[in-house]
Amino acid sequence: MMLELQERVTELENWKDGKGLIIYGAGNTFCSGSDLNVVKAISNSQDGMNMCMFMQNTLTRLMRLPLITVALVQGKAIGGGAELTTACDYRLMTPGSEIRFVHKLMGLVPGWGGGARLVQIVGSRAALQLLTGATRVDPERALHLGLSEETLSSSDEAGALEEARTWLSQYTEGPASVIRAAKEMVAVGRELLLEAALRTEKDIFGTLWGGPANLQALARRPKHK
User: Fold this and answer.
1) Of 157, 31, 124, the residue nearest 85 (C-alpha)
2) For residue 70, what is the enclosing H or E element?
3) pLDDT digits (tens, 9 = 90+) for 142-178
């Protein structure tokens, strides 16, 4: 799965006209984390660090994609699966689903960047509770914590995916250049110090001003109410 995920991220980095992405699992399971047989086979420190760096790199690249990304959580998102959800911009959950950081039960902490991202999403106090309690986070609690945006009404895979597409469409309507620029601006604002983020925002703005989307909008003479 790790190699396949990296390959898909590389493909998405080369998708120049994309605007949105929904990540979901199969068989009503989002992702149950690492294969325990693989974990046992690489239980020495160096192999563990190599895996950690590989997945940190892959999920950081996923997080930085110029796409609005949604994790559609059906069933369980456990361990590495929970970390994967944090690399998306938003999380939508279905009835009966859960997100759970079980790393403590394995004698570990998150290593794929999920711990740092969780702090950004829910704050340090809630993140510490979720990590040290290995707590099952159901849709209601996820909404309360700000870990999820919405609980969908559908439990079946096809219905939930259609709901997720409808939800995402409200943020991907419009020119791809504008959607992708907005995502890039938010990404640098999250990761860079203020002065560097401001410089980058200016540069991104410059790529749009006077461009096709801007000129078309001006030609429509829009009035905002």
Assistant:
1) 31
2) strand 68-73
3) 999 999 999 999 988 899 999 999 999 999 999 999 9
Query: What's the gap between Cα 53 and its chain centre?
Result: 18
Of 38, 135, 148, 132, nearest in space to 89 by CA: 148
Q: What are the residues facing 184 on neighbouring strands?
A: none
Residue 156: Cβ-neighbour burial (10 angstroms; 0-12, 13-18, 19+) = exposed
Burial class (CB in 10 A: 0-12, 13-18, 19+), 17: exposed
Over the stretch 57-83, which tens digit does the pLDDT of each residue have?
Answer: 999 999 999 999 999 999 999 999 999
pTM: 0.92
By C-alpha distance, which of 74, 87, 66 is closest to 20?
A: 66
